[in-house]
Inverse folding.
């Protein structure tokens, strides 16, 4: 039987600080975990409902910012100007790379917007493969704006669906918020560090930065509650976040969205990113435990 596994749920299930080979038994365990997920907490029953609301409000605002950016991408592709398409592609990436923290709560939209070829049975040849990464390959690798245009139009429609998804309050709760934060925080050093995230645009550093910003945006509303339990744990997480951001900050130019090409970083530079990313990930796990969020 062909079982498709969400990459973040798998990483959450097997993502300890040092990830080795994923075994068949781990895959089966992760697949079973998907089948036995507990129902979402009702807002009235969630001790941290206000914090969830605050995080969702931020992401709803990000989705509102995302829509005109993908509309601009569609227009640039339609114009036939390849360089303009490349520029608007990069400029359109940040909002969703923050929002994807909660991708487990809207898996269909996440697949349509941000999945890569490995998520589909037939890879890049699969008809279901679309969204940012289909467009990325068509622009940067193939220079084929004509073929990219219908995918850009589809991406606009997918972002509109996402905006509706983020208003479905019943699909969100504090356990799934932390599940998303920790899973994405693990995915960066365990997987995205390989540069698979932006293979053709070479903008993986931008993705790391925006992922971390998105994670912290959902963590920050829990600050007061965490400080009341253990101020040192909050300080640990805040410091780890700032340290992670600092590892990529030198590769950005003020006033520009794009980062330097990720391919230009050597092993030592990448290693610093990995180490900082795992420290941030571990601090989130510690915070989750202190708050008693299961």
């Amino acid at each position: 039987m062909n079982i498709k596994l969400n990459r973040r749920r798998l990483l959450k299930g097997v993502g300890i600080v040092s990830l080795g080979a994923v075994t068949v038994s781990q895959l089966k365990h992760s697949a079973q975990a998907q089948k036995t997920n507990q129902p979402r907490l009702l807002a009235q029953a969630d001790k941290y409902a206000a914090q969830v609301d605050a995080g969702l409000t931020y992401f709803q605002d990000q989705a509102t910012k995302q829509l005109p950016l993908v509309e601009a991408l569609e227009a640039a592709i339609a114009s036939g100007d390849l360089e303009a398409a490349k520029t608007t592609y990069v400029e359109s990436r940040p909002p969703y790379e923050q929002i994807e923290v909660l991708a487990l709560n809207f898996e269909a939209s996440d697949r349509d917007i941000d999945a890569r070829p490995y998520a589909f049975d037939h890879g890049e040849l699969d008809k279901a493969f679309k969204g940012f990464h289909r467009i990325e390959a068509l622009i940067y690798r193939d220079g084929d704006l004509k073929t990219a245009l219908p995918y850009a139009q589809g991406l606009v429609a997918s972002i509109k669906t996402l905006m509706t998804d983020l208003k479905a309050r019943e699909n969100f709760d504090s356990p799934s918020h932390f599940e998303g934060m920790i899973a994405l925080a693990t995915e960066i050093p365990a997987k995205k560090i390989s540069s698979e995230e932006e293979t053709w645009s070479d903008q993986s550093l931008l993705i790391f930065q925006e992922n971390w910003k998105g994670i912290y945006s959902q963590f920050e509303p829990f600050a007061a509650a965490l400080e009341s339990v253990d101020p040192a744990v909050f300080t640990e997480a805040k410091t780890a976040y700032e340290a992670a951001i600092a590892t990529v900050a030198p590769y950005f130019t003020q006033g520009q969205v794009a980062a330097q090409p990720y391919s230009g970083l050597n092993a030592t530079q990448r290693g610093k990113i990995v180490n900082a990313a795992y420290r941030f990930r571990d601090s989130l796990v510690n915070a989750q435990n202190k708050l008693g969020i299961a």
